[in-house]
Amino acid sequence: MKKKAKVSSKLALKTPQSRKYVVIILTVLLGIFITIAVKQNSKPELLTSVREDELVLILDDLTNQKDDLEVELIKQNQILESLKNGSSDAARKAAQDRIDQLILLSGTAPVSGRGIQVLLTGDLYSVNSFTILDTVQELRDAGAVAIEINGIRIINSTFFTDTTEGISINLSKVRSPYKISVLGDPETLATALKIPGGMAEIVTTSGGTVIINELAALDIDSSVPLTTLQYAVPVD
Amino acid sequence: MIPVIGLLIGVLVGIVIDPTVPLWMQPYLPIAVIAALDAVFGAIRANLEDTFDDKIFISSFASNVLIAALIVFLGDQLGVGSQLSTGVVVVLAMRIFANSAAIRRNLFDRK
Asked: Distance between CA atoms of A110 and A181, rounded to whole angstroms?
């Protein structure tokens, strides 16, 4: 200990008093350093205090992101070019065609065209909700684009149930006779209903009647309100 | 008591003047702070055991900071900087815990 005291006495720490000042200075310095370190750490976006290998990792990440974004940019530019080069009329016409198609299929607007009209009569035994559902499905298989039963438009969410007097479509009651208007190729639709073992045969053998008229011009005036998408959104 | 007051003054000064640290010093600052804290805890322990010597405190403060910075610097040069600084922090933290345990025991013994 004595030897050490001699050594340090040769430095600036001669008296106990001056040593006390050095202690104070050191603690003050420590306080300053602590605040600096804390402040530095609370600025996470600053990369100055990050080590070299960590910087390399960050750089790699950013490079990958940049590559992905460049690929995306090229794709979007291609789309932009194709839209620019194609005349805007063609693009608008394509969009309008698509809208027409969707209106037809979703049943949100009245439609007209060629088709057939079917008159179904019978009691609950010969014509019930199963018969109607089978009919609708067979018509769709035959390429029906729009179907209406007794003034009610049939769309993909329509449902049929039996009641004591007839059937109900979407909870609104309808009864025999059922007037079914269908847009599509008349011959194909009529054939689909008339095939052996088809709807017409089943209804007539169980006591009902089926009258099918092929029409060159047919209007379907009923429509369903446009519903807002609640659980799903289209993917581009 | 004086070191605690000095520490508080330092914190206040740091908040008020908001100094910027040179870029090359920034990786060493957190390690240096931990090393200095180790020295301070050692001093508090020594003070409670009535063996406090300001010469020892000054030298341990300086050497702790310098050696810690040196190890981290060496680690950076060798490419194992982050691992070595983790090691330094672990060792210094262990020492701080050991010192604080001794301080606690000492305080209980006094009562």
From this structure: 12
State whether A19 and B55 contact (CB < 8 Å): yes
In B, what residues contact A, Cβ < 8 A?
2-15, 18-19, 21, 23, 26-27, 29-30, 32-33, 36-37, 40, 54-55, 57-59, 61-62, 76, 79, 81-82
Q: What is the pLDDT of residues A52-101, one digit of tens each?
A: 778 888 889 999 999 999 999 999 888 888 777 766 677 777 788 888 88
- The single-letter DSSP state of residue B105 is H
Of A29, A35, A49, nearest to B26 by CB-CB distance is A49
Question: Degrees (nearest 5) of the Cα angle B61, B67, B68?
Answer: 90
Spell out the domain ranges in chain B.
Answer: 23-110
Mind listing the pLDDT tens digit for each residue in A170-184? 888 888 889 999 999
Residues A91-140 have pLDDT tens digits of: 777 788 888 888 777 888 888 899 999 998 888 888 888 888 989 998 98
Mean pLDDT computed over B39-57:
85
**Residue among A46, A124, A234 at smallest CA distance from B27:** A46
Tell me the C-alpha distance between B19 and A31, whole Å.
Answer: 12
**Is 0.90 topped by the overall pTM?**
no
Shortest alpha-carbon distance between residue A60 and chain B (Å):
18
The full set of domains in chain A, from first to last, is: 110-220 (3.30.70.1880)
Rounded to whole angstroms, how far apart are CA atoms A133 and A161? 10
CA A181 to chain CA centroid, nearest Å: 32
Alpha-carbon distance of B4 to A31, in angstroms, equals: 10
Please tell me the distance in Å from A19's CA to the nearest CA on chain B: 6
What's the CA gap between A99 and A92, in Å, rounded? 10
Nearest to B3 among A23, A33, A52 (CB): A23
